[in-house]
Amino acid sequence: MDRDDLIHDWNHADSQDLPWSRPVELNDETLRDGLQSPSVTDPPIGDKIRLLHLMHGLGIATADVGLPGAGPRAVEDVTRLCQEIVDSKLDFRPNCAARTVLADVRPCVEISQKVGIPIEVCAFIGSSPIRIFAEGWTVDRMLQTSEEAVRFCVREGLPVMFVTEDTTRADPETLKALYGNAIGWGAGRICLSDTVGHATPEGTRALVRFVKEEIVAPSGESVKVDWHGHNDRGLGLANALAAIEAGVDQVHGTALGMGERVGNVQMDLLLVNLTLAGAHEADLSLLPEYCRIASEACQVPVPCTYPVVGSDAFRTATGVHAAAIIKAEAKGATWLADRIYSGVPASLVGRSQEIEISPMSGLSNVKYWLKSRGLDADDEDLCARIFNTAKASDHTLSTAEILAIVNSTRNAPAP
User: Fold this and answer.
1) CB atoms within 10 A of CB 399
2) Measured on CA atoms in the order 99, 166, 191, 267, is the torsion positive or negative?
3) Which tens digit of pLDDT belongs to each residue from 134-187?
4) Does the structure show a pLDDT above 70 at 234?
5) Distance between alpha carbon 343 and the CA centroid of its chain, in Å?
């Protein structure tokens, strides 16, 4: 049977192409926004360099390598990461976050001049009425400080991404004033930020369309539009896909979704979904390593149920599920076995399906487990002992528990 006949794909019921299945660039915020989580550890520079190379290998176009205005250590790490890009000849664009004040943007310029490559300055300022009220700002004052910072960077030859914080709760006129002037000052990219995870996919699409149609198009400039989202309502990934559908040029994310409060868009899951949609081409076998390094270096545990890279992502101990995988393998169909109980093929990220033994298992789980490890799956007494132990247990048996039964059976005296 043809593979296309084995899966009826309702995702394509209305259209052959998903609405967000178009190539976009990706900006990795792990080393800046990801490190703003109150629970993470700021990794040593060696781990940051390793992550930088993995980002490059995963087809990510650019990364925020830090906020040098935060202090000497930040300046040192940003400088070292930019130097690594130069030394390793990576086709990779660094950027740095900075408030729209000279004290923050000046270190970006100095680092760029020192290492000899352009660093895009992501100059940010709050934009929502609630933020403006709390800060006691006026729009005129905001425009004054922003103009000074943006024009300074442009004069020094650096590209500028003008970022409004809390864009998803900002009023249209304020956004027109901030973005419209920023484009006039020379910003080549503007970023819409869902800073507190307020947006829904519908709101995301409406905002992106407004900015493109009412601000960017009338400017007559070739300005790129970015989306930077947070996950407070659990809608981070859905909003990112909606932003792509609405026409943004670049989407931001972090490894494992690390970041402020409950975090950002998960870069790893964004990569998987874009790849499955045919909108991204890269070797995703690097993805587990990318997530592992980020997890260990930042001391952020990966839940066992985390999609794709969690320990249980391709692991089953349920008899019915395991039997289906085993039957698929028996047909000599690796492709089939990798999809029969998996919406994401394990092979896409260099992993494989795993069958374990638990109280929910059947005898086929036991035989498969033994056979896959070169043990005697035809020993009926051994299989029965493992099976009965599992049925009496309250958990999935560990490798050590199963091997203990194997060894005790081997050492049992002959009847």
Assistant:
1) 11
2) positive
3) 999 999 999 999 999 999 999 999 999 999 999 999 999 999 999 999 999 999
4) yes
5) 18
Q: Between the CA of residue 44 and those of 64, 86, 182, 254, 323, what are the distances in Å?
A: 16, 20, 35, 18, 45
Spatial separation of the C-alpha atoms in residues 91 and 196, rounded to whole Å? 32
Two tokens at 23?
A: 């190539």
Please give the CATH superfamily to which domain 23-298 belongs.
Aldolase class I (3.20.20.70)
Burial status of residue 12 (CB atoms within 10 A of its CB: 0-12, 13-18, 19 or more): exposed
Of 277, 274, 294, residue with least CA distance to 59: 274
**Phi/psi of residue 84, nearest 5 degrees:** -65, -40
Task: Over range 235-262, report the average pLDDT.
Answer: 98
Task: Specify burial of residue 144 (Cβ count, 10 A radius: 0-12, 13-18, 19+).
Answer: exposed
Prediction pTM value: 0.94
Q: Tell me the C-alpha distance between 54 and 34, whole Å.
A: 16
pLDDT digit string (tens) for 360-374? 999 999 999 999 999
Range(s) within the chain of domains with CATH label 3.20.20.70: 23-298
Quote the CA–CA distance of 120 and 188 in Å, as a whole number.
10
Residues in CB range of 183: below 8 A, 6 or more apart: 162, 190, 215, 216, 219, 221, 223
First vs last C-alpha separation in the chain: 50
C-alpha 1/C-alpha 335 separation (Å) is: 13
**CB-CB contact of 223 with 235 (8 Å):** no
Of 85, 128, 78, 130, give the one whose Cα is nearest residue 104: 78
Q: Which two tokens stand for residue 78?
A: 């940003």
What's the pLDDT tens digit per position in 44-68? Answer: 999 999 999 999 999 999 999 999 9
Model pLDDT for residues 175-216, shown as the tens digit of each residue: 999 999 999 999 999 999 999 999 999 999 999 999 999 999
